[in-house]
Amino acid sequence: MALGRGRADGVCQARECNAQAVWIITWSNPKIPWADSKTWLSCNEHREFLSDYMRYRGFPFEINPLGPTDQLDGYSTSDQ
Fold it and tell me: Superkingdom, according to UniProt (predicted)?
């Protein structure tokens, strides 16, 4: 049983935001070279905020529109 909405629901991952995500931010921490890249989902309102966070931390990142075939915790967005 899920306690709340999460990635698989396709919602923005900014704190306390429940808006539908429309962007996927792929990032990595260069201080952990063996770690895989991570992804965050973002709504339009929080896209710049999350980008600024990555810039401040010096993390390389890429922003792309969330597409129907993107994987969200094992489910593609076309499955929803």
Answer: Bacteria
